């Protein structure tokens, strides 16, 4: 299955990232980080802020993986409904994680403001769009649970949802004003600049060869260098197959693909998402859509790239927005999600001083940024524990079979969906 980034809108439109070099020779720091995505970059930034020496290695370039390929919705919380979160983790741990991630968008936008990151920031909220009666029931349940916990969310009725989205195909929507949209690769590159400014060491084109214990801590090796560190964080998430294979077995990799249109006309933009919120729907095989800064419609769906997905996307857009006529796609790309069995992110202490963070299950911008900050505070003694419980995960049973099940299911859905299915 393709894992394509070459034709990504985000790569075409993001400001250039910092000019980094390969790791060569030996360096010694307090913390070494493997992975240049949101978690790793946030951890490096916040560790450096706190005066902790830190070095980060990235196999490709900053934001190469899911952090530079995702939809760019900065949402609060996790996929799981709040009541279910309490049942899964226990009341105290569930509320702790919920409250922490409720503040994740504020952290993201505050970093963007503090470091003047140019990443097409639009903080107009997001819309969780209800498809059919079952979708509306889900949104009603979520709204009640979130409002009980103090979230300023609003359940929009059919008429208002259709005006805000620009389509008659949704029965309602849950609006969260805390959220917004960004250009995700530009944000990742901006975090890298910020981390460098604070004193972190960053290296790209430096794939992990090994992590092995030493008398003082750990030795992280790459093809041309090595890092001696007291602690190591593995933050490669869905891109763990090359170098952190043992961690890859803890999650199921799922593809999510996106297409971006040519810029819409002013008349079209007056109808499609006139307030520029980001949207995702309640379908089991989820889809999402938003606008970029130039007025392109960015449409995404579960599954890898291919004719089935692009044909489905064109058909779906024609149903949602018939006034757009024939949409022309300029860009198409895909990336991988690390799907955990409980749909929650996890932090594992694999051995003393060796940690792994992964499993964002497709919601990594806010949680990944927050997790990096919490790790930095925990390592520096400013907090006693993490909001995400420390767990020891088992290998996913029948992992490859489950990956195929998700992919075939998405492709079958895209091939077989009829236009009336979204009514």
Secondary structure: number of strands:
18
- The total count of helices amounts to 13
Structural shape? globular
Number of domains: 1
Contiguous low-pLDDT stretches (5 residues minimum) are 418-423
Q: How large is the radius of gyration? A: 21 Å
Structure description:
Residues 418-423 have low confidence and may be disordered. The chain has a single domain (9-422), classed as 3-Layer(bba) Sandwich (FAD/NAD(P)-binding domain). The chain is an alpha/beta fold. The protein has helices at residues 9-13, 38-49, 82-89, 91-102, 104-114, 132-148, 158-165, 184-198, 245-248, 266-269, 307-320, 365-379, 399-416; strands at 25-34, 54-57, 73-74, 126-130, 154-156, 172-176, 180-181, 201-203, 210-213, 218-221, 225-234, 252-261, 278-281, 287-291, 297-302, 329-339, 346-351, 354-358. Strand 13 and strand 14 form a beta hairpin. 34% of the residues lie in helices and 23% in strands. The strands form 3 sheets. Strands 1, 2, 8, 9, 10, 11, 17 and 18 form an 8-stranded mixed sheet that branches. Strands 5-6-4-13-14-15-12-16 form an 8-stranded mixed sheet.
